Amino acid sequence: MKLGIIARINCHSCIRIARRIVEIVPPSWEIIMEDKLARSMNRKGTDFRNIDADIIIVIGGDGTILRTAQLSRGKILGINVGGLGFLSEVEIGNIEESVHNLINGNYRTYDVMKLEVYINDKFFGMGINDIVIHTARISKIRKFSVYIDDRFMENTSADGVIVATPIGSTSYSYSAGGPILIPSLKAMVISYIAPFGSRLRPIVCPDSSKITIKIIGKFSSLVIIDGQREAVVNGNDRVDIKVSSERLTFIELKNSFYDRLREKLIKDVVN
Description:
- The protein contains 6 helices and 16 strands.
- It is of the alpha+beta class.
- It folds into 2 domains: about 1-105 and about 255-270, 3-Layer(aba) Sandwich (Rossmann fold); about 115-245, Tumour Suppressor Smad4, CATH 2.60.200.30.
- Strands 6-5-16-13-8-9 form a 6-stranded antiparallel sheet, with helices on one face. Strands 12-11-10-7-14-15 form a 6-stranded antiparallel sheet.
- Helix 1 runs parallel beside helix 4.
């Protein structure tokens, strides 16, 4: 068994957790550790981009998980040492129990979709959460043309447009007023950031659709993948987004999507 371990940079708690995991896992398991974490533990490490493991334990928050999904390969088990930690399965209080369940094979897996992003027909990257096209200057509204399967939907003036997967629908899109999509749905959602006078509300599209955003006007905007990677686009540039044939696999121990939804989002609202 190849086990990858990745942790948030400059997090002392994350390093302590990583040390404990190394102590628990069987000696027969090969441990592949991200190089910055490895140096803090006086071990030999591997560049993020070269980690290819059966399972990757990610210690940190959702941002660390998204970065891992961008650069590494393997089934992901998240340990939350961040804020909300919606993508994380394990909380600090049950780390040892969770690792023992992992060792004994007491877990399930589920796949989530990835989105491919093209800028003017050139491949830019893939995301699992959301693709955001956002004005490059604060308080400067932009105009965007939205197409679905090359069919014109609307010109909208807004701070930006979000295209989210079901997993990503609980993040930025949710904050912008978009609906929550259950992970088993084969769909994407288009939401708008601070739209001005738009009659259009968030739209749910099937996963077979191609979503196209055209930037109108001479001012620049940013295309941002999972909050991790960005590129500048200018007037008349086109961003195409579609579902990839690739999938990312998460490990699920006890908490289902519905448990996390209730505990991390709905519970706070009810209370």
